[in-house]
Amino acid sequence: MKAVVWHDVGDIRLDEVDDPRVQEPTDAVIRITRSAICGTDLHMERGTMPDMVEGTVLGHEAVGVVEEVGSAVRGFTPGDRVVVTSTIGCGTCSYCRAGYFAQCDTANPNGPAAGTCFFGGPRPTGPINGLQAEFARIPHAMTTLVRVPDGVSDDQAILLSDIFPTAWFGARLAEVGSGDTVLVLGAGVVGQFAIASAKRQGAGRVIVVDGIASRLDKARAQNAETVNFNEEDPVEIVRELTGGIGPDRVIEAVGVDAEQPGERTSEQWKPGDAPRLALDWAVELAAKAGSIGIIGVYPPGFDDFPIGQAMNKNLTLRMGNCNHRRYLPRLLNMVLTGSMDPTAFITRHEKPTSAIDAYRSFDLREDGWLKTVLDVA
Ligand SMILES: [Zn+2]
C-alpha cells in the first residue's frame, strides 16, 4: 500500500510499504477513506517532537471501513464505517475507565509510565504506524474505533478523529462555564473548534488572537472578537476589551513552535531565545484566579514557563493530550443532529499523492491551508 513515511527531519516520503495485518486479537484493520494533516504532524516533520523512528507511517486522523477484525473484537463487522480516535486506550485499565484514555496503562508498548500512545508518533508513544495510508492496523479496536452513523459523511467525521475532541477538551480544561469571557490563542483549525466548543459550553464572549487575517475572518464568522497580533499589541487590546480585568478562561491552541515554521528544532531550542510564546500571553492576560487550558503541543523537555507569575495570580492550569474516546461519541451526535457542521473548516482536499507538497504548504502557513483532508478513497 501507499503511505506517508517519516525518514528523517525534513524528509518525509510517499512510499510503498507492506499492508498492515491483525496482530493481536483486539486489533482491527481498516481501509482508510479519509485522512488529514494535523499541526502535530509538522512537529515530527520539523523535529520539534524528537525521537521519531525511521519508517514510521505518519498521521493520526482517519475515517475508514473495517476490513478485518481480531477474534476478541465483538462490536464491529467488516464493512462498518468508522472514525479512529487519535490516541489509543485499552478501555479496560483504571485510567481508561476513569476517562483518561490518553494515559492508558496498557496501550503504550513502552509500558504504563510511558504516557500517551497515539498513531504516527515518536518512539515514546509506541511507535504505532499512523493513518496517512491506504490501510491501518487499529490496536484496541473496541475503544479506538467509533461507528459513524449513516447521517454523518466522511468529511464531517474526519474532523472528529482529533480536532473537534481536542478543542472540546481544551474548553473543558479551561473550565469554561456559563457567561464566561474566553480567550482563544490561535485561530488554526483547533482554535476554530475551540471557539465553537467554548460557545457550546456556555461562554458569554469569545476573543481570539492570531496573526493570519484569513483565520481571523473564519473566527469572526463564528462571532468571535478578533485580534491580529501582527497589527496590534494583543496584551493591550485584550485588556481593553475586558475592562482591564482579562479573560476568565484561556484556551492555548498554539503550542511551542507555531511562530517559526521550519527554523527551530528541539536540539537548537534554548530557553530565552524563543519569540513570545502564546503561553506567556495566556498567563499575562488571564484574569486573577482565572484558568488556562493548554492543548497546544509542548514536547517533553520544554521547561520554560512563567510559574511565578501564574502562582501570584492564583491561576488554575490544566493541560494534556486529549482523551478522544471520552468526547467523540457525544460530538458525533452533535454533528448528526446538525448542531455543528465540521466541514465548514476544511479548506483543502488533496489526493494522497500530493501529501508531501501539502505538508510544505501547511508548514509555510500559505493562505487558505487551515485544514487539509486527504481523499484516500
Ligand atoms: Zn487503558
From TrEMBL:
Residues 7-297 form the Enoyl reductase (ER) domain. Its cofactor is Zn(2+). It holds the Pfam family ADH_N. Keywords: Metal-binding, Oxidoreductase, Zinc. PROSITE patterns: ADH_ZINC. Belongs to the zinc-containing alcohol dehydrogenase family. PANTHER family: ALCOHOL DEHYDROGENASE (ZN-DEPENDENT)-RELATED, ZINC-TYPE ALCOHOL DEHYDROGENASE-LIKE. This is Threonine dehydrogenase-like Zn-dependent dehydrogenase. It comes from Lentzea atacamensis.
